[in-house]
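W.,

You were right to be curious about this one. When I first looked at the sequence I had no strong expectations either way, so I just let the prediction run and decided to look at it fresh. Below is the sequence, 355 residues in total, followed by the output.
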Amino acid sequence: MTVRDIEKYRRRNPAHTLAELRNYRICVVIPCFNENDSFGKSVETLKSAAQHAGAECAVLAVVNYPEGADEKESLLLQRRISEKEFAWDDLFSIYAPGLKNGVGEARKIGMDSFLQSCPPEHLSETIICSMDADTLVAPDYFTEISLFFQHHRQGGVVCGLRHQSAENDENEAAIRRYEAYLDRYVHQLKRCGSPYAFHTVGSAFAVRGDAYIKCGGMKIRKAGEDFYFLQELAKTSGVGVIEKKLVFPSPRISERTPFGTGQAVKDIIAGKNLSEVSDEAFDRLEKVLKAVVFENLDSDTPMLPENTFFEAERFFRVWSGIRRNTPPGKLCDAFHIWFDGLKTLRFLHWCDNHI
């Protein structure tokens, strides 16, 4: 990536510049809204992890509140950070009132601001970690993430996670049920050979600075921004996985977004069933992905299992153009860019509806 590419991104995505962040190579971005009670605990675990790593790691809190919400709690947290109540010189903040596009907008403000503050020539060595204000991390959080990027070429990584213990037995059973549901989905994708076999949780990933820019930066959506960001990152720079449990999100019930952990836990407690994908659907996905590896893709109409799905998705209408514009040896990669994480999920649901 050239300095020109970096400057182009910065012009299109204007952000705050914080001179204090210039010399940091690792920064954790944390959106904060109504989390005065939990933020201090999160900071303490990050401080411990930074001491364990023996490195200077910045934490950038994006203190915000949605448009129309009461700003009292956000103003209080912003003042607490400004007055150094948390006794950590590596903790900084941006105040972002009246946001219209959810937590994705807050993440983008923080991540873009960190990159705006860094010298362009250092972005390939810069790491942005994404976390939440009610999440805890393991003592070797920074150490493991740094080691991953030292030894792997992928632009991003997803950390192993386990939700904190819930406040009662009913909620505890619900969060473990939801974890098992998420783990099964990722495990089955991995078994099938999908390059999208990773958790898409906003509090548990990290990305190189240049890879962040290459994939177009954080997506601004009211929900699912982490899914779409990691999907694009997988297409452009690759996403690896640290299996070790390094991140411990909150198990709390929440209605801030229409889907996700909080809503799922609430639904489980209410007796609703999670929409599990069948083993048969995953078996059919495996056959498709194996065919992609062994089939001659250098054809306008490659022979793929489940052709009815691919016809309905207009795959064969676009494949000839993709094939002509793809270098030799890269057709399998091109297929996976088209058949991304969202299309994979759509395919699995299609299989379950066409048994």
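Here's what jumped out at me. The two ends are 46 Å apart (CA to CA). And, maybe more interesting for your project: The longest strand covers residues 239-248.

Coffee later to discuss?

I.
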